[in-house]
Design brief:
It contains two helices and five strands. By secondary structure, the protein is of the alpha+beta class. The chain has a single domain, classed as 2-Layer Sandwich (YaeB-like fold), CATH 3.30.2310. The two termini are 26 Å apart.
């Protein structure tokens, strides 16, 4: 299925510390999470092991929310959380 990454999603990705490659990866191989308004949510945890805003984080969790319109996945937004998560 074709994936269309909305410009709003790309803007939020840059602000929040992810990119188009990770967004695509989350959609294709992430885990399902609840979403509102008949949307679909998926997430994936990545090793980060870097500083962000003067604080060190082991991992980041990227959550992507999207809709399917006429057999095209259209992203709505992306969230990124920093911390440490248990193994899936």
């Amino acid at each position: 299925m074709e994936i269309q990454i909305d410009s709003h999603t790309l803007k939020r990705a840059e602000e929040r510390g992810t990119d188009e490659k990770e967004i695509m990866d989350v959609i294709n191989s992430g885990f399902s999470i609840p979403a509102k308004y008949e949307r679909i949510g998926r997430y994936k945890v990545y090793d980060f092991r870097k500083m962000r805003h003067n604080k060190y984080y082991e991992q980041k969790r990227v959550e992507v929310f999207y809709a399917i319109e006429e057999n095209v996945i259209v992203t709505i937004t992306v969230y990124v959380f920093y911390g440490k998560w248990e193994e899936e």
